Amino acid sequence: MENKYITEIVSRVVNEMKEAGDAGKRSESGAVPEVTLKMAKKLIDRVEAEAGRMGLNAVIAVVNKGARPVAVHCMDDSYIASYDVALNKAYTSAALKMSTIQLKKLSQPGGELYGVQHTNGGQIVIFGGGVPICYNGKVIGGLGISGGSEAQDTALAEFGEKIIKEALDLWQ
Question: What is the pLDDT at residue 44?
């Protein structure tokens, strides 16, 4: 009798947690997608092709809404230092919900966020190449690129942002 009672309680709690989790993933227009490995790989493939077209050997990093890595891709002969830079650009964009080029403006001397790069264990990047991954106005992840100049990294990140906007519905 006691085991049956415990089983019923556990089942009820599990069902309540599942319903609460499902409700948390919904927006007015339906489900809010998670950044999956499949999605990250497709995005990385497209960004890598564009980097190749530009003559760059880049590192491409994708993080989820918690700013945790989903995938990091190092093109052949990319800079060793670009690994951490790309990952930190993706982290910054997801964590602060803005592109790193926008943050650059805010973090200059006299700016509202001056000194922000010294927070979060040094993970905050204040130069271009990182963009948030958004769906229906909600940040669900971040994309970081490193391997070229700031302008090249920013252009690649913005290319990735365009791809996300065009294809996110198809990646679910």
Answer: 96
Which DSSP letter does residue 125 get? -
| φ, ψ of residue 78 in degrees (nearest 5) | -75, 160
* Beta strand residue intervals within 42-170, DSSP E: 59-64, 69-74, 130-135, 138-146
CA distances from 11 to 7, 16, 18, 19, 106 (A): 6, 9, 11, 12, 50
Which residue from 157, 165, 142, 166 is spatially nearest to 47, judged by alpha carbons? 157
Q: 63: how many CB neighbours lie within 10 A of its CB?
A: 30
Q: Rounded to two decimals, what is the model's pTM? A: 0.80
Confirm if 155 and 132 have CB atoms less than 8 A apart. Answer: no
